[in-house]
Amino acid sequence: MAEGKVAPKFTTEFLDRQVPSEPRIDELKKWCDQFTKSGLMPFYGSGAYGNLSFRLKPDSQEFIITSSGMKETSTAESFVKVSRVDLEKKIVYAAGQREPSSESMFHSLIYRARPEINAVFHGHCQALLDNCARLGLVCTEKEEPYGTLELADQIMKALGKNDFLIIKNHGFIALGKNMAEAGDLALKTMACCS
After folding, report:
1. How do beta strands 91-95 and 164-167 pair?
2. CB 168: neighbour CB atoms within 10 A?
3. How many CA atoms lie within 13 A of 138 on its CB side?
4. CATH classification code of 11-191
5. pTM of this prediction exceeds 0.85
6. For residue range 82-93, what is the model confidence (pLDDT) as tens digits?
């Protein structure tokens, strides 16, 4: 679960070392700040538990995602552009100055499977895990190590057309047609735990 503490389960091939330049990164920064303040993406010693992304263009597999072990959201270096993911070779093709999130593979799979989704927000909240059954939330069947294709497969098996999903003993995923939709869904679902 702790991003940055273990090497990602894929290789990053950097196509460019330039920091991504995309105006919507400012909105993503605001959501990262909101998630850390609300406890949906808590900090640990060397980063934050979670990763947020948005699709760059409709019908594109490219997306901007938080970097692995992201500590600060105020700098553009905390964000990475993922151009494509080769699942067979476990290679993430990226642009930026830091490694992309260790969960880049499942973000990529969701964007491939759900063309209407333009934001994938993944965080960690014990209250959501504890209240999963009571709230009737969809949950993956098995626990798998973070950053692996096995975890991505579990997510895809459970996801279907759901926009909110609990990853067993791990965290949650909120999806939206835009960042506000994904972020609001996560906040609203967390509020139901009280």
Report:
1. unpaired
2. 16
3. 14
4. 3.40.225.10
5. yes
6. 999 999 999 999
